[in-house]
Specification:
The protein is an all-alpha fold and about 250 residues long. About 40% of the residues lie in helices and about 0% in strands. It has a two-stranded antiparallel ribbon with strand order 1-2. Helix 4 packs across helix 9, helix 4 packs across helix 11 and helix 6 crosses helix 11. The longest helix is centred in the first third of the chain and has 20 residues.
Amino acid sequence: MIFGLHSKVEKNSIALVLAIVLVSGVGGIIEIAPLFTIDNTVETAPDMRVYTPLELAGRHIYMREGCYACHSQMIRTLRDEVDRYGPFSLAVESKYDHPMLWGSKRTGPDLARVGNKYSDQWQTQHLTNPREVVKSSIMPAYPWLNTNELDTGDLSGHLRANASVGVPYSQEMIANASNDALAQASPDSLDTAALLERYGKATTVRVFDTNPDKVTEMDALVAYLQILGRLTDAANSDDSNVEGGS
């Protein structure tokens, strides 16, 4: 009976168009309806902070080198995932990610909570020659990151673009993006105090690539990796510290 009705609809162009509209409408409602309750389902985290210019530059390098093609950044609620990678990912943790890098391909491990799991030296060695620290690794090497000096000239523009889509970068942050990026990887810089004033005392200031002579792309990428999962502590807090949206 169903196949007979389907055959009749296919032979009647008007009926076929109406059927397509009906099915598309139902599918659209199912996808769109949950968005009306998004304020009640997405968490808010009072301690959420933005990426510093150096970390944001590292994120751009991470995308440029295609790291997201093999590493996801979303821990699912499955028991084996939580046991292996830590607390499952919350929507609020990606609040300032443009674009999202959740992914689903796991040639390598999920990196949602890799921040501070390994030392800066380990991360630098791993990116320079993965087999040096993980003999079975199939990850490609990125030695040029150690020699490529970080280009900070366009960072103000990147912060401004993020601000236009809701990331709370101030005009002062945007104007000083280049200096702040260099200061975060240069502990002796005269600009370090201003950086901490703008982004908070919890901001990590150190030589990330173990080479104090210049600020490199390795500095930026390691700084980004070391902040993954640490923009907010919401996932590790009890329910009283994670507020529902209003």
